Amino acid sequence: MNGHMMPASPLPLGDDYSARALAELAQALDNATQHSVDDRDIRMSDAGVALLDRGGSYGDEDQSWNGDTITPESLENLLGRSDFDEPLVADDTLMEKKPINPRSPRAALEPERVPQPMRRSSRARHPLVVAGNALFTLLIILAVVVGGALLVGKQRFEAAGPLDSDKIVTIPKGLGIRDISELLVQEGVIEQPWIFMGGVFVLKARDELKAGEYQFTKHASLRDVIGTIVDGKVIQHQLTLAEGLTSEQIVARILENDLLTGNIREVPREGTLLPETYKLVRGTSREQLIQRMQQAQRRAVQEIWDHRSPDLPLKSPEQLVTLASIVEKETGRPEERSRVAAVFVNRLKQRMRLQSDPTIIYGLVGGKGSLGRPIMRSEIEQPTPYNTYVIDGLPPGPIANPGRASLEATANPARTKEVFFVADGTGGHAFAENLEQHQKNVARLRQIEQQQRDPWSAAPAPATTAPDSGAAPVGPAKPRPRSAATKPTATQ
What we know:
single chain; two-stranded antiparallel sheet
């Protein structure tokens, strides 16, 4: 500075001074100097020694530092200072320390000068800044709390549930999420209703909870429980409605079933229901089941009618259902359906009366289905719209609801010339193409019946028929020359 050059190396130290002494000297000089030293440049080196510009001078202009060892006298002459209150002494401390005035312990603990606190800026005290800081802090706390709650909730959400065995619970229609959670707690399926409701909200499944009868597995977690209800995995029950039942009988069985709800407005027309095994859930309305059976029947009949035999002597799907209902009532053996259907089809082609006993019974009792006793001779010749011993061709409508197998057998009957059949005494039937063979089959049946009634007697007995049993095989035929498809019944 001012053109002066800094010395290339720190000031040489004499034997009289230590590094500590020089540091204390520099501190004393700094405290004593109050006036400006514009042209002075004092710097401390890494060793704590003052570096002076070679061209500078202190005090008298002719007194400058010559690079020799610093002594108290030379330092005083060099600086040209005479305002030191105390002489410099070249000992371990370089100068005498000021005496310490003793103070009380309490005063000794108090600071000599308390620093004034820094005044906060007006920007930091602005209400928006304060509010922003508070909001930011609140958000951080809230995020920590929510994160912790989600972590704990997730663990409990996926933990094993309290059920020690499978449990069936029915959730009625119209329940809200709170009602469902309380119901599940009462049934012992879950323990924390709030976690259940929180899981539903997180999964966005509030509007997807479905009513129904559910089976919750052992130790099902909350996730499993919600998934079961959302997916609608209700228990599937099976209801079997046998082939050959009348519509009135089917309606009675549906009304007896406690899985179903509601009433049935009216008994469907005969032959419009498809008997089979239906899967349904608890709470299904009875009217819905009737509609399902009607739709299934229409689809099945149309499909089978489209694949019928080309030479079938039937004019409409309704006639197919009517003849199939007679086949259904005549035999319960699957292997016989196509042969029984062939007998009736052959008789229709030859313009022979069908002479089917089930048509007599339906003409007498209608949809009740069962006569409950043997047919009497007077009933055989009793005129009714359905009695095929009296009328020609088909009756005006079905006498029962045939199953798919009977419909298929009737649409594609066996290729035979048989026009007679009679019970064989073993649950099946014996078939014949002519009257002579048929009479032999009837005689054989009478012999079997006689042996069953009285194994020790060979005397003939009057022929009787077994009570009608719906889809069971019909009773024996009377041994007399008659062109009947089935047996005549016993006399009064």
